[in-house]
Amino acid sequence: MTKARLEAFSDGVIAILITIMVLELHVPHDVTWSALGPLVPIFLTYVLSFVFVGIYWNNHHHMLHAADRINGKVLWANLHLLFWLSLIPFVTGWLGQNHVAPNPSAAYGIVMLMAAIAYYILAHTLVAAQGPDSRLARAMGGDRKGKVSVVLWAIGIGLAFLNPWLAVAVYVGVALMWLVPDRRIETHAPARSA
Amino acid sequence: MTKARLEAFSDGVIAILITIMVLELHVPHDVTWSALGPLVPIFLTYVLSFVFVGIYWNNHHHMLHAADRINGKVLWANLHLLFWLSLIPFVTGWLGQNHVAPNPSAAYGIVMLMAAIAYYILAHTLVAAQGPDSRLARAMGGDRKGKVSVVLWAIGIGLAFLNPWLAVAVYVGVALMWLVPDRRIETHAPARSA
Amino acid sequence: MTKARLEAFSDGVIAILITIMVLELHVPHDVTWSALGPLVPIFLTYVLSFVFVGIYWNNHHHMLHAADRINGKVLWANLHLLFWLSLIPFVTGWLGQNHVAPNPSAAYGIVMLMAAIAYYILAHTLVAAQGPDSRLARAMGGDRKGKVSVVLWAIGIGLAFLNPWLAVAVYVGVALMWLVPDRRIETHAPARSA
Amino acid sequence: MTKARLEAFSDGVIAILITIMVLELHVPHDVTWSALGPLVPIFLTYVLSFVFVGIYWNNHHHMLHAADRINGKVLWANLHLLFWLSLIPFVTGWLGQNHVAPNPSAAYGIVMLMAAIAYYILAHTLVAAQGPDSRLARAMGGDRKGKVSVVLWAIGIGLAFLNPWLAVAVYVGVALMWLVPDRRIETHAPARSA
After folding, report:
1. A66-A70-A71 Cα angle (round to 5)
2. Do C2 and B61 touch (CB under 8 A)?
3. Distance (Å, rounded) from C-alpha C73 to C-alpha C63?
4. Which of B158, C127, D27, D141 could lock A93 by a disulfide, CB 3.0 to 4.6 Å apart?
5. pLDDT 10s per residue in chain A (194 long)?
6. Chain A residue with minimal CA distance to D21?
């Protein structure tokens, strides 16, 4: 019951974030295809952020599915994650409206880095609540992917000031790395999760 | 449990899409009935898109109701469908503000075609997850309606460049075809779905 | 399960409608109390519409709680109700920005009348799905309140053209009539609903 | 079942409120870091309000978790709370755009005071519905924190006219007081809530 509500609230926030990003795609007043031209970078950053939000939703889903116990610390670690996710529409808009300039690219990486750290904290708070021998603890293992993405986001932020397109390339790489579903948890809980 | 969360997240996104479309109906500053005049085409395209979103919600509901197993591929196929649905407010606004011009009519059809294809992919991913002898597999059958609507959307896109009103007529036809509830699934699972 | 999703989707739409209405309260740039002055009629119409949306949520909640069977017709009757509810932010904004002028007052009543009719249709579709001897059928009885409010909304629309304040007075009367919780259903299902 | 829907609806409204506040962070057209400068006070008030909304969600969660019975009065007491919470984005925006001026600081406190009173009413309505010997009644005890925060909000409103920064300091103090999770309820219901 408690877990259901944590999931429902997170789903609500994540669903709204996705749709808020769509609002950045302002309807053009002209009916020519070229009127859609200025929207292309906004659309592409929307796709990128949609994929990241989808990854978070997917991983959040799998992780909570493998959890049995929720406590007050988990609720706040989850709110902390939602806080950083809530800033994604802002940095997505800043990046998309400015055709991949250095500062917006770095800002995008900073918010994503903070979200990755917040997810890491949530994962460890959840594992602590389950106990060391829990199904979730075994499933998470060393959380290599989580650590690698924190490093990649940090690298991307640095690259943004050299060449923002390099930063975006790193960000796309992070997305590709996560698009492979988290086999660890699915494998350890096949009967219930799959 | 897993299915419940997939449904809840989809419901959240779909509910927000419907209400985002209402925001295109800007409150006029004048109090005359004629001040509502320019809103009429926006209102009518809102009605059309509301019906389509309602059809998706209804079919999604019936289809998932008949499904017992969810896996990682289903989660992503569902996110893919939500992505195309999330673009409906944009093309609805473009169509409504421009009184059925060729390009917006075609754009509307393109997004709807992609959503129809995404739904088709989701349906087949779900059936594959249930196994060939599953209740859902029997209920889906050949999915004739799904195939017909993909063809109709493609025809509508072509017609948009000849006469956008013909395209809209085809789109209304697709809506009418789907407004008949999907008897296939209701019939095969009467005790639980109906 | 089916009922749960119908409720969840309706809750999502209704929750968003409430918060969309708040967006009409534009943050003033000035810091004087008098800068809030022009917002007073917008605030009061927000309160009125919040109460109506709350009434709909409450009655919807009680009615579905007493229902055991959902079918395809109920899903569409529910979407039809949500459609008219989705127009409440628009007419609320038109009424609030124009200090109770005749046309916006009438438009408010028209949308509310259509919502009341849609609720009536939903109630009867639900009762039909349960069967004549069902708990819901007994609880609904003659649905006197539902019929009275349809009549009151119609009267209010007519009065709007004579004196819009009279119309608003009738609308407030409808709200007061419904603020008394629907004892019929609570009485017939005390152990589960109360 | 009834409780689940009350929770789901509240979650929906609260999730949307959080994300509506983010919309106040308008994407700047410039790509310099200094373009973010004017957003700093808006960001800080967003953080403050995010924390308060998170506190309400957390406490609401714990309180309803310990409740077994819901009645019509609880539904309206809950809607009353949601009404005041729905005004938080407005006062947050007014405060943030005006760099902590007296009137917006007082308005922020007034809405928060009303929300605190509404929560207090909801808590007592819920306890009344459970009966004097209930788990919730024991867990709530004298509700000292609830009473203290009502007093602190009132003090903050008064201080806003002397020095708005003092008011904000009091508001931050209220947040810190609540950030400590409500041990009372968790302690009395460890097996289910924690």
Report:
1. 155
2. yes
3. 16
4. D27
5. 578 888 888 999 999 998 889 888 888 888 888 889 889 999 999 999 999 999 999 889 888 888 888 888 899 999 999 999 999 999 999 999 887 889 999 999 999 999 999 999 999 899 888 877 787 877 776 778 888 999 999 999 999 999 999 999 999 999 998 886 555 554 444 333 22
6. A86
The verdict on A144 touching D (C-beta cutoff 8 Å) is: no
Question: Do D23 and D62 touch, CB atoms closer than 8 A?
Answer: no
Cβ–Cβ contact C90 with B under 8 A: yes
Residue burial A145-165, b: 16+ Cβ < 10 Å; e: rest: bbeebbebbebbbebbeeebe
- Write out the two tokens for C168: 């608003």
Q: How far apart are CA C171 and CA C179, in angstroms?
A: 12
A131 at the D interface (CB within 8 A)? Answer: no
Identify from C5, C10, C27, C39 which residue to disrupt to test chain D contact, counting D C-beta atoms within 10 A and taking the largest count: C27
Instruction: Give the distance from residue A75's alpha carbon to the nearest chain D alpha carbon, in angstroms.
Output: 7
* Pick from A4, A19, A186: CB nearest B20: A19
What letter represents residue D154's amino acid? Answer: A
- For the residues D166-178, what does the mean pLDDT come to? 93
| pTM (2 d.p.) | 0.89
Residues of A in contact with D4 (CB under 8 A): 4
What 3-state DSSP class applies to A150? Answer: helix
CB contact under 8 A, A22 and B24: no
How many Cβ atoms are within 10 Å of B138's Cβ, its own excluded? 16
**C8 chain-B contacts, CB cut-off 8 A:** 7-8, 11
Subunits next to D (3 or more Cβ pairs <8 Å) are A, C
Q: Which of C2, C5, C103 faces B11 most closely, judged by CB atoms?
A: C5
What pLDDT score does A156 carry?
95
Report the alpha-carbon distance of residue C160 to residue C163 in Å, rounded.
5
